[in-house]
Description:
Number of helices: 9
Amino acid sequence: MNLTAVSPVLIDVIVKRSETTTLHNVGLALLGSLFIALTAQVAIPLPFSPVPITGQTLGVLVTGTILGANRGALAVLFYLMEGAVGLPVFAGLKGGLPYLIGPTGGYLFGFIAAAYIAGYLAQRGWDRDIFKSLLSMTIANLSIYVVGMPVLALYTGTEKAPLLGLYPFIFGDILKIMFAAIMLPLVWKGFCIKARPKA
């Protein structure tokens, strides 16, 4: 598995620009932040946990993979900034600084790492076949918990944190990872077919 060679990511193939500017990259990151905000609204609150089930993780993983490491992480930073100033981008059309410093704040900041990792591995071609894509999405998704769980534990205690912030989400994460891992290589295949010269 190649961890050194840098390949184009999907957005570079879709947009087909020979060179990118700072304005172009910022624009793509802003679009990515809006996509994450939309996926955040697919939300199911859990009565026993401060952490809701949302589509955010799927949005973050797909955004990082499509945009690449730097633009993907920037998209999440924009998303967090939008929420911090009060725009209704978090789950349930909520916003405000308290969400970043509350029990779910660690998960939100974990999105930065997840988007970067997914993008980094996509730049190494890991999003072009299902097995590598599954592995990439899993590694990136785990980084959300690595950051999120310790913060949640500050509010709930170490023993309760897995019950409230990990176990209820495993099945949903598996479904989202499988969906993304199947979809992205198919999109790549579709663009490769379109790019082939006609006989």
